[in-house]
Design brief:
Blueprint (H helix, E strand, L loop, with lengths): L17 E6 L10 H24 L4 E6 L8 H10 L5 H7 L6 E5 L10 H8 L3 E7 L1 H14 L3 E3 L5 E2 L3 H15 L11 H6 L5 H14 L1
Parallel strand pairs: 1-2, 1-4, 2-3, 4-5, 4-6
Amino acid sequence: MPGKNQDLHGNAPQAAAVALLLIDVINDLEFAGGEALLPFALPMARRIAALKRRAQRARIPVIYVNDNFGKWQSDFRKLVRHCLEDGVRGEPVVQLLRPEEGDYFVLKPKASGFFATPLDLLLEYLQVRTLVLTGVAGNMCVHFTANDAYLRDFRLVIPADCVASQSREENTAVLRQMRRLLGADIRQSAAVDLRRLTRRPHHGGATQSAGTARAKSRR
């Protein structure tokens, strides 16, 4: 029996303890609630763009985890072209966050980035144990992806200024919930030390952090 393929069929990524996930940022925002989301998504996109540049310098892989928007014949590049060329509401967000050579992408059919996608397999090949989650909407797809990541024992960093929802109140509430129940680090993106994260060993971090957070909340 042949050994386990170590190189993703010739497209070998670097091994990395940390990955940056951009959730549903390739988004035309042409849906009910998209207009309300846009004022929060634009500043979010600027912060994510800066965080992405830092991640690239730290050799942290960048993974776009994106809805296929119910179109089973769609592909990621077609989604990017649609958002950049068809005069849609989300164009300025996608302009800031357009994918680059070397980025990874995963299309998802439902809210969680893990449900019925190859994300688990990609993260396994990359040897990732800490996920930095960013994107929209905080109280939907980011939240569902964070829940599934927690169940898989990933350590979670969810920079508060790199997540957007349709209202500030909804976003604040879900960030607090993810910090309290999932042990997520929700500090501002400028305070996230990416290089330190890459050096930090993983010891079942998500579960341990969540337990610590719950213990503190009872004091």
